[in-house]
Structures are given as structure tokens and as C-alpha cells.
Write a structure and sequence with these properties.
Blueprint (H helix, E strand, L loop, with lengths): L1 H18 L2 H17 L3 H4 L1 H6 L20 H12 L6 H10 L2 H27 L1 E2 L5 E2 L2 H9 L2 H35 L3 H16 L3 H29 L4 H13 L9 H20 L5 H6 L7 H28 L13 H13 L1 H34 L1 H20 L3 H24 L1 H10 L4
Antiparallel strand pairs: 1-2
Helix pairs in contact: 1-19, 2-7, 2-19, 5-11, 5-15, 5-17, 6-13, 6-16, 7-8, 7-12, 7-13, 7-15, 8-9, 8-19, 9-10, 9-17, 9-18, 9-19, 10-17, 10-18, 11-15, 11-17, 15-16, 16-17, 17-18
Length: 454
Amino acid sequence: MSVISDFLSAITQSVGDFVWGPFMLCAFLVVGGLYSIGTNFYQIRGFREWIGSTLFSPRVKKNMRITDKTMSPFQTFATAMASSVGTGNIAGVATALVLGGPGAVFWMWISALLGMMTIFAENALGIKYRYKTTTGEWLGGAFIYIKQGLGMKLPATIYLIFCILASFGIGNAVQSNSVADALQYSFDVPPLFTGIVLTSISAIVIFGGMKSVARTNEKIVPFMIIGYILGGVYCIISNFSLLPEAIALIFKEALYPKSALGGTIGYGISRSMRYGIARGVFSNEAGIGTSALANSFTCDNDPIKQGMWGIFQVFTDTIVVCSITALAILTSGVFELGSTSITGTALASKSFTATLGSFGGIFVSISTIFFAFATIIAWSLFGSKCVDYLLGEKMASLYKKVYTLFIFWGAVSSLELVWQVTEALNGLMAIPNLIALILLSPQVFRMFKDYPRL
């Protein structure tokens, strides 16, 4: 069994090294740069408009014909946020700091800044090419605009397969494993008990269908994000005297990293870029295409407006939440440059505990639980829609049953290999999606140009 595990680990490591190597990292930046330049950096110059059309829009819940087959724009945003705001915002950021150094945060910001327009394009194309199924539900997403927009069935099918497989890892087992670790670390709760309870609660929401997922995320996502922001900001303010030093360290290590991170300056920079961009994409999913699937359920037919929700999603996920995690860690006095003795959720818990006392670990654990739960139920919807499209409704029902079993398995298992596979699948999903975004860019630019308020 050990030989098989080692073999699979070697394969996934090789795949991961390719999809998160220099070529793919550049691909994410190039696509984001393409849309940023093509829209004259709308994510920056249009801040007032897209923030006003999303967070402060009176149309978020009003004047919308919401039915059992659709979601409100805010519900689609909450579902998209639920899929992205997961353990990557806490454990992922902490791991990036350890493996890539503080400079990884800088590259996280760069990938997010450009990724705002990548996800803008995904959402716009998702609305443009979506259609109603025989059940009356809207269906869109990367696999739809790959097939409908480009007429490429095989790449669309490949994307679907990768998405289904990834749902069991990034959206499921990895999340439940983090919940089990958090509860065991802070409250000494046995993973078996966590697995049973988490599986049961998740199953109730998952088998309730799309509206059940939407209503649940609509309620818990704002609460969990605002709560985490307030706790993180409090930690940063409490150590405010160390904030300038932390910010300076981020820029210094991004452009001139110490040898402890790689022996040479070039290698150190590549590590910062690798972990910064990879963890940023892992967190906000810009370039992966899942946001387009979530936003295709909306009752709003405006592609550009849904694109704005995508910008707001990446802004909230990475520029706000991930930055708060990073700065809370760097200002806590716990982080040691070059040390790998503590990482992931444990590092975040130790950092928050240094400021909040014993409540710090509890706060991180509770945040992890909510983030992970929201991700689990959101990805169940993504996976089931992909299976339904590829194999039919009966197989989608079977998928949900298998998916819930993976929640329990993730809680009680060691998932080092699953983390590797998940990261590789994330990158593999991006390949057909990024190609489609490049080829379909003229259509996005045309929609953007024709939009009356831009």
C-alpha cells in the first residue's frame, strides 16, 4: 500500500510542479493582464462603480424575479464566496508564508489584482452562454462557454471531469479534515464525532437542493466573513507598531528574498511567486471557472453586472480576508522567517493566540469550521451540476450520496496525498478555462465596450 501511495504521490507531485510551474503561473498573470489592459484596468478605475453595483446596490435583493429555480445576485455571490473562502484563507495563507516567505503575500496581491478581471470575464461569459435546462434551471459555467462559445466539446468534457474530481478534494475532504483538526486542537473533539456531525448537517443542506444551498450560504457567508475580518483587524491594531515592519518585509522578501528561502535570490523569488500565486488562485479561484458556474444561477441577465460581482468576490476573498490573515500572523511576533516547524492552521492559531490569548485558537477554529462548511455545501452544488450535465440526473443523485461519504472520510483521515491531488486538479481545471478566456476575449471586450455606463 505504501508503494502505491508513494507512486501516486510522485505522479501528483510531477503534475503539480507542471501546473503550478513557471508556465502556468505566467498563464494566470497573462490572462489577468490581458483583461486588465483590455478594460483599461477597470478593477482600479471603476472601483466606485463595481462596489456600488454590488455591495451597495439596491438591486441586490429588490426588483428581482427570484424563483425556486434561480438565485438572487447576492445568493450567487454568497455561493461563489462560499466555494472560495475556505481553509485556503487561513491555513493556505499561513502555509504560503512558511514555504514562500512573506514575499508570497505580494504575489498573492498581484494575482488577485489581475484575477479580478479574469473572474469578471468568466462571469460575463457564463451569463452570455448559459441556458435553461429541461427542469427550468439556468446552467452555465466554464464548460458551457468552452463548448458553446468555442464549439469544443472535448476540452469542455475534460474540464467537467477535473471539476468533479476536484470537488471531492478541494471542496470536500480537505475542508472536513481542517474542521476535524480545528475542533481537536481547540476543544479536544474526536475526529470521528466531528465526521458524523459535519456529514449529517451537510447532508441536510446538500439534499435540499440548490435553494437550500443558496439560503444557507446567504445567511452564514456574511456572518463568517465580517466576524473574521473584525477579529483579524483587532489583532492587527493590537500590534499596530509592528505593521509597518510587516508590510516592508512583504515587499522586501518579494523582490529580494533571503537565502534561507532558497539559497539564491532568483530561486527565492520563484518560491514567493509560486506559493503566492498558487495560494491566491486556490483561495479566490480566479481562472478556475467555478465562479461562472455559481453566478449562472442568478435571476439577473446582465453579464457585466455579474462580472462586477466577480471583481467584488476576489477583492473580498484575497485583498481583504487573505491579507488580514497574513498581517495578523506577521504582526503577532510568532512568525520566524525560514522556519518550517509550524505551518497551516496551527501557525494561524498560535498567531491569533499571541494577541487574543486562549480565545485566539478558538476564534481560528470557529472561523475554519464556518469557512469549511460553506465551501463543502457550495462545491456539492458545483459537482452535482457537472455530473448532471455529463451523466444525467440519476448519477447526480448518486454523486451527492458519495460526496457526503467523502465528508466523513476526510474528517477521520490523513490527507497529505489528497492535498497534492487537489492542488494538481485545481491547476488542470484552469488549462482549458484559460485557453477559452483568451479565445473569447474579443466577445468580453465587446460586451464591456457596449455597456452604457462604462
